[in-house]
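Hi W., the FE2/S2 (inorganic) cluster complex you wanted:
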Amino acid sequence: MVADSGRIRTAQLLADGRLALLREEDLTDEVVMVIYKNGAWAVARGADGPVVTEGLCPHAKAPLIEGEWSGSTVTCRRHGLRFELATGACQNNPRYRLRRFSTIVVNGYICLGPERPIAPAAPMEEVSRWP
Ligand code: FES
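Structure:
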């Protein structure tokens, strides 16, 4: 088991197969990295709700929580690629694209959207034990 610390959190798998990334109430102005098995997502507060992207830069895998998030873009600190959050397009190198994920809120948890289902593997009560 991976312990949560600061801006790095561990996702939980819900009984219905959804991956719960973060509690809504835990979403602040700081970007959070959420990990689960081999996956990593960056979760930020957007103007219209949570914004979830892949957690590592598609260029050379720098953690995007260290990037500069401002409104509609995130700029990776390692080499300066800047991504448009709405489309994932890279503004300074069209070879790269940032994956963004839709979300759905289930019982107060920000979950990955329905187009990315994950097979059920854990009972629902695990979620109630979240810190
Ligand atoms: S690792 Fe992000 S721009 Fe190179």
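Residues 8-113 form a domain with the Rieske Iron-sulfur Protein fold (CATH 2.102.10.10).

W.
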